[in-house]
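Give me structure tokens for this 68-residue protein.
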Amino acid sequence: MKNKEILGYILIGTCLLISLFFSFNTDALIPNGYELALNGIVISKAIMVGISIYLTFKIGQLLIKKKE
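Here you go.
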């Protein structure tokens, strides 16, 4: 295995761990003092986390599939 391929697997594994963490611990998305304004903050942070996980996953796939 090449170093880029190993980095790709590490990125994909990290994405899976982060998404599992936020799936089971939704309180991590809510900042202190904003318990009453949950809808907008949780939705916006969840979308941000989801997009960043998706992009990191795609970078990992690109590094694995890249042929030199």
